[in-house]
Amino acid sequence: MSIHIGSKPGKIAETVLLPGDPYRARWAAETFLDGAELVNEVRGMLGYTGMWRGHAVTIQGSGMGMPSLSIYANELIRDFGAKTLIRIGSCGGMQDRVKIRDVIVAMTASTLSTPSRGIFRELNFAPCADWQLLRAAVAAAEARGVPTHVGGIYSADVFYDERPDLNEQMTRHGILGVEMEAAELYNLAARHGVRALAVLTVSDHLITHEALSSEDREKSFGDMVEIALEAAFA
Ligand code: HPA
Predict the structure, then answer these.
(1) Ligand 1 centroid – CA 92 distance (Å)
(2) Positions marked active-site
(3) Which of 24, 149, 176, 221 has a 20 to 30 Å separation from 99 between CA atoms?
(4) Model's pTM, two decimal places?
């Protein structure tokens, strides 16, 4: 039992998928895992452990934003021994060539600030994905025929952004998309010597202003779960 995860050591797998939405965690566990068992419901942030092709996997909601994800990722790593953490989530597209429904696999994530800012202070630490996971996720996405982009993303602190000038500069510098969690996940993975990756579906677009329907969101979310699982055990 940690402060925010009401489970016992041994009930959480070394491989953890982290969707932001706890109901997505439940859907993914019930859809893709055998024998999925509820292992956390503190604050409604559902987590399940089950088996995928003979491997134990936990799917735990992270909540939205880096402060929330930081709580769950810290406790999963420090109190439950998680070794591979893969965020599966949505993002806003920031390049014309990145289309709605495409997958982005994040090599690195830029931020204005993260919960790790207090450690780094004046250092602009460049957090990065685990190379093996990244390579395997790209291969799995391409094998499914999902258009996939690999590169830098932006982890924002606010969804309702008030810095169009900054977004323009990021687009100009090749940032593929915006979400709100990956940078802190990569920071924590570096700090604790574990593997991390963010696999994201483009659910809305900052340039074209298109957005995925809820039906399409479910289908593309399912693709991401399978890409993440294949990458974790490649
Ligand atoms: N901004 C931040 N996070 C997001 C977005 C966005 O446009 N879309 C999906 N997650």
Answers:
(1) 5
(2) 204
(3) 24
(4) 0.97
User: Residue with the nearest Cα to atom 1 of ligand 1?
Assistant: 159
In this predicted model, what pLDDT tens digit does every residue of 161-200 receive, in sequence order? 999 999 999 999 999 999 999 999 999 999 999 999 999 9
Is 204 near ligand 1, meaning CB less than 6 Å away?
yes
- What are the chain's domains? 15-232 (3.40.50.1580)
Alpha carbons 224 and 20: distance in angstroms, whole number: 13
Atom of ligand 1 nearest to the CA of 90: 9
- CB of 91 within 6 A of ligand 1: the answer is yes
Helix, strand, coil fractions of the chain, as percent rounded to 5: 35, 30, 35
Give the CA dihedral 223, 226, 232, 234, nearest 10 degrees. Answer: -110
Q: CA-CA distance, 206 to 67, in Å (whole number)? A: 24
Residues in contact with 114: Cβ distance below 8 Å, sequence separation at least 6, in sequence order: 66, 70, 155, 183, 184, 187
Which residue has its alpha carbon closest to ligand 1 atom 10? 91
Residues 85-130 have pLDDT tens digits of: 999 999 999 999 999 999 999 999 999 999 999 999 999 999 999 9
**92: Cβ below 6 Å to ligand 1?**
yes
Binning pLDDT at 50, 70 and 90, where does residue 153 land?
very high
Model confidence at 216, in pLDDT bands (50, 70, 90)? confident
